[in-house]
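Anyone able to model this chain together with magnesium ion?
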Amino acid sequence: MNRSIIHVDMDAFYASVEQRDNPSLKGKPVIIGGASDRGVVCAASYEARRYGVYSAMAGARAKKLCPKGIYLPVNMNKYKNTSKEIHKIFRRYSNTIEPISIDEAFLDITGKNPLKIAKEIKKDIKEEQGLTASIGISYNKFLAKLASDMEKPNGLTIIKKEEVIEVLKPLSVRKLWGVGPKMESELNKLGIYYIGDIQNYDPNVLISLFGKRGQEIYDFSHGIDNRPVEYNVLNQSIGEEETFKEDIDNIKYLIEYVENYSINLSNKLMAKGYLGKTITVKIKYNDFSVETRSISLNIPTDREKTIFKTSRYILCEKFNIDKPVRLIGLTISNLIYPEDPLQLSMKI
Ligand SMILES: [Mg+2]
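re: yes, here you go
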């Protein structure tokens, strides 16, 4: 049976929540996070995006582009509570829900009328939470997510089986799930720029060059994606590392690096609404040997202080640094998106 999958993506979520709760902010460039120059923008209202401000941008850069923007602190508890209410709405329509971040989820609604359900979910969210969502409807996750992005904000887009090849053909390869700048430039080297170029490419060449990924992007380019909608631990990690201009042999400086990384990792986790459980420090010595040490926390975290304290402990107690260091990295893995956002109040 053909599946019916919808992807719901809240529009400029954090910024919209702030505009909802303080009507004087409506129509204004609202930027969440990034108030300090070291901070990172977590969300920007559509008005702020017109100035070129986007999430994950450094606060200092945002302030150059939009000096008159209204910069607000990240009020995570508020967004998490709103997210929880939105998930309650989802559960009215499906038991098969896969949250992929604090403001995005897939719902499998196979056997039901997808257009009717999508309209009802949008209406419920608007009436009960005063917010807009963009929804994509299709027969798999890749296409549903692609569709939700096509008419943002407040969009409702369907990609049907009979039109999929034509819809995908003119899009950049970057629109394929998991194709980042690196993969894009690899594909460009083969003369592949658009999804249509992959549709006509020999899949065996793609597989010989990229292995499993080659098969996957060939399938995606034909609108094939059999991954189920399911709640699972995210097979992802978030990390930072840097090779120093000159080797470092003073642990004080290494601690400063992990402190900076901790701030960035915490910001990235919060921007996506994730929590992480395993913290790993990697060290490369001047002889190019590499060592890694990890600690898994009992309670997953997104807190800068917890990440820093744990990574400092790993660095000072679990390594025996006896050579100059040329690179240090910090990664947080075993990421989860908490199904029950209230779980987040249990922080360590
Ligand atoms: Mg969103």
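The chain has four domains: 5-11+77-164, 14-74, 165-221, 234-345.
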